[in-house]
Amino acid sequence: MIYSKHNIFSGITGSDNFFIVNLLTGSADILNPEEGKMLRDFLGGNEIEEEFRNNLTEQGYLVDEKEEERLYRSKYLDFVDAREEDEVQLFFVPNYSCNFACTYCYQDEYSATKQELSHEVIDAFFNYINLEFAGRKKYLTIFGGEPLLNSPRQKELIAYLLKHAKESNLEVCIVTNGFSLIDYIDILKNIRIREIQVTLDGIGALHDARRFLKGGGATFDRIVKGVDACLQNNLPVNLRMVVDKENIAGLPEMAQFAIDRGWTKSDFFKTQLGRNYELHHCQGTSEKLFSRISLYETIYRQVKQHPHILEFYKPAYSISKFLAENGSLPDPLYDACPACKTEWAFDYTGKIFSCTATVGKSDESLGTFFPEVTRNEELIDSWESRDVNNIPECKTCSLQLACGGGCGSVAKNRTGSICSTDCRPVKELLELGFSAYFEQDH
Ligand code: SF4
Ligand code: SF4
Which ligand ends up closest to the CA of 418? Predict the structure, then answer.
């Protein structure tokens, strides 16, 4: 029996206890200080009590190597099968233009084309997806730029897009800055809306200093009205707060605002935190950006001081929240990047891309659906083949089944290769997560 290469073992933040999890066998345990010490001794090559050794074997932390390989392969096949059955998320970008000039927008360097969205392009898009993804569960996400611009022409085009979605029996998500949401409620009411993602970066001036109109102008109050109107009309809202060191201090207030407004009580309201990071180009002031772990450390401290944040947002800390809420671990994650597997993106110029991270970058285009269908099969293959078995460093990494190799686009921007790593600080996140969700005195 050997120590499983998929064990993740460490101390719990602010506690003398330890945790050990194994996503392959599905085991998770908290070890008291004596047990933690014994396991450390064992890893250091020392003998341990037989009873403790038996417990480790029973729980699947000490394994037969061949058995483990068999289990790994069989769960990998299950993962691939399940993904084949999974829903595909199809993004459509009607325009890259925007009425906002957010301080951190990664699309600000995308060059505008003279081309405009037309009925012909929308028809070609639906022809393509209904053929290419026939028989697969799928849904549509409208993304920008800003898709909900308040002009008669844009409203007509969005209504035409939504009519097609309805005819194709697709649920629709919309990613919007929220400024003109209120003007679109009547159009959206008649569609199967799965979610409207709206961004607020804090309350009042804090938000307005980051997300303002082109040419200047506050946006907070109108967005709030749009969110209110959505919830009143049972349109699900996913409120996103993009955070960095400049606005994270506003999280407790943001949470209180959502609570006071009754949003957090609504079944149609959920939230997410987006970490502001450099995707395609340098933001100049990268000192203001959080690393993934420093963001979660900050949130961990904030929640201790302001527990009401949890009514608004519950941090995942890798798989910790899932474990706390479900009482079991999620299935092993052999691949965290859905690009070209369960996610594709398309834009109004007729181009096909792997996902939202690459959409609009012409050198990342994988082909076209308009004016004719073309596909760069070699590039598509490299996206499709990305998983932890195809990335050399991941193959031997004990975190692989929680991390899944991270984001292919971040990896490619870093190394030039899609099949390279975007490491997640899984162990450090679990140290915080076990503390936040499992330690009684926290
Ligand atoms: S490349 Fe990154 S952003 Fe795109 S689907 Fe993969 S994980 Fe998501
Ligand atoms: S991306 Fe890094 S942390 Fe994630 S599985 Fe691969 S080597 Fe491990």
Answer: 1
